[in-house]
From TrEMBL:
Residues 277-292 have a biased composition (Basic and acidic residues). This is DUF3027 domain-containing protein. Residues 107-116, 157-169 have a biased composition (Low complexity). Residues 104-169, 260-320 are annotated as: Disordered. InterPro entries: DUF3027 (IPR021391).
Length: 320
């Protein structure tokens, strides 16, 4: 048996000698192949000792099996208390737990997911502060309170379409404010505006490789759809289906090869008209298989060939 490791008290002799019993319990829990050599024993109390065995599992490097044995007062039998797997000083441990709000990354939100926004989110600021309170008899005050309460309510179960929303009567000031974009409980703060601008400029800005090789910037492109408000001075939306930034917010200094004025498409070449030489006549034989039907080969140009002398048949030659 290996030497026992002691803390503040001396281990009980019978419990410290129960190495085989502790090892058998560890083997029963993890298997023979997962339990290694005995690492030592520690006294946890009066007649309470914990035996440690090396863990041979590749996924638990540096861990140890801890089997605690105990003995009752004036008893000679040692019993098993518990068996656990504990990490050592050089054990491989999982990273510390991180809240979901810090683990969330862009693109993680899927269909049907709800993302609560913290009340003190720096990206937002109150859109309705109550500084300009309407008169007591105004229909805007009570309705706006209901809308603010609905914005600050806790997230409930169910899809967003099933969530209750305060009624907005047509023709009221609240309905007009909603159409103008002024009826929101919170709006984008300057900090949220700047962080969004930095994020967009990093993805589709002048520092990207595409913009460095572009023939011109987006501010002169006909496919750019300008934004409203202060963002109009620096950003727009690309509407070129062949551009890699189609449908994305792009910086005015961004650019790509799909610029509307990048190049003029050349017109297809027009074939040359046919050339007809009217100064020369090429005689053609109507019956090339019959000799004598064609023109004389040695005839001078411009002169008609002399007709060939006909030879009378043999019968006519005898009569003459």
């Amino acid at each position: 048996m290996s030497a026992a490791t002691m803390r503040s008290r001396t281990p009980d002799r019978l419990c410290a000698e129960a190495v085989d019993m502790a090892r058998a319990e560890a083997v029963a829990a993890a298997g023979e192949a997962a339990v290694g050599e005995h690492l030592g024993a520690v006294a946890d109390g009066d007649r309470v000792v914990t035996h440690s065995f090396a863990c041979l599992e590749p996924a638990y490097r540096g861990w140890r099996w801890a089997v605690t044995v105990a003995r009752a007062a004036r008893a000679k039998n040692v019993t098993i208390d518990e068996t656990v797997l504990l990490p050592g000083d050089d054990a491989l441990l999982a990273p510390e737990w991180v809240p979901w709000s810090e683990r969330l990354r862009p693109g993680d939100l899927g269909p049907g997911d709800l993302l609560p926004t913290e009340a003190d989110d720096l990206r937002l600021e109150p859109g309705y502060t109550g500084e300009d309170l309407p008169p007591p008899d105004s229909p805007l005050s009570e309705e706006m309170e209901e809308r603010v309460a609905a914005e600050d309510a806790d997230v409930t179960a169910g899809p967003p379409a099933a969530q209750p929303s305060p009624a907005r009567a047509s023709g009221t000031l609240a309905a007009v404010a909603t159409e103008l974009g002024m009826g929101r409980a919170r709006v984008l703060s300057r900090y949220g505006l700047h962080t969004a601008a930095d994020r967009w400029d990093e993805s589709y800005g002048s520092g990207t490789a595409m913009a460095q090789a572009a023939p011109a910037a987006c501010m002169t492109c006909g496919f750019l759809v300008p934004l409203t408000g202060s963002l109009r001075q620096a950003f727009g939306v690309c509407a070129n289906e062949f551009s890699p930034a189609d449908g994305h917010v792009v910086s005015l200094t961004y650019g790509c090869g799909g610029h509307s004025e990048a190049a003029v498409m050349p017109k297809p070449p027009r074939p040359a008209p046919p050339v007809i030489d009217e100064t020369r006549v090429d005689p053609m034989s109507l019956r090339p298989d019959r000799p004598g039907d064609g023109p004389a080969e040695n005839a001078a140009p411009g002169e008609d060939a002399a007709p060939a002398e006909s030879t009378p048949p043999a019968e006519d030659r005898g009569r003459s």
